[in-house]
Design a protein that fits this description.
Elements (H helix, E strand, L loop, with lengths): L3 E4 L4 H12 L5 E4 L5 H8 L7 E3 L4 E3 L3 H4 L4
Parallel strand pairs: 1-2
Antiparallel strand pairs: 1-3, 3-4
Length: 73
């Protein structure tokens, strides 16, 4: 399963999401929009206005949602 975490610097929910995924040994690719600003266009085109956004083959999760993130394990 391909999991992507869209995040940015100085974002507490992003840090918490990243920590949760790491602690639960869920592999993911992090896309930091401060480092890769071109990803902002994709987020906007898909209706997202905030980060973190976690995308996978089975779900899209906005914000720090440990209840939903567990389903990716």
């Amino acid at each position: 399963m391909s999991i992507k975490l869209f995040s940015k610097n100085n974002c507490m929910q992003c840090k918490m999401t990243k920590r949760f995924l790491t602690q639960n040994q869920i592999s993911f690719e992090e896309i930091n929009i401060d480092i890769q600003p071109e990803a902002i266009d994709w987020l906007k085109e898909n209706g997202f206005q905030t980060v973190p956004v976690v995308t996978s083959d089975v779900a899209t999760i906005v914000g720090f949602r440990p209840d939903q993130l567990k389903l990716l394990a």
